[in-house]
Design goal:
The structure is a single chain. By secondary structure, the chain is mainly α. The protein has 3 helices and no strands. The protein has one domain.
Length: 88
């Protein structure tokens, strides 16, 4: 089946990474990292059904999102508030 091919997951990761460049905000980057990690796992040893692959992808994407948030997020977890007007 097509979902058993590791390079299709890698192509999906590349598409999601390109989509992240077009729509910034770390929305698609976690999904891209999850798909890339899954394609690496499938290339090395993993062979599973589609529901299992989707569950693994969801777990890897959630883990990569948490790592991205820890690395690039603010230490206090709040949003940045801009008080100075750039037009002054």
């Amino acid at each position: 089946m097509p979902w058993d091919i590791w390079w299709l997951w890698l192509c999906g990761a590349v598409v999601l990474a390109i989509l992240e460049v077009l729509v910034p905000g770390y929305i698609f980057l976690g999904f891209a990292l999850g798909a890339g990690a899954l394609s690496l796992m499938m290339w090395i040893w993993l062979s599973a059904s589609l529901p299992a692959l989707l569950a693994i992808w969801a777990g890897l994407s959630a883990a990569s999102w948490l790592v991205l948030r820890a690395v690039f997020g603010r230490p206090d977890g709040r949003a940045r508030i801009v008080e100075d007007d750039v037009n002054k």
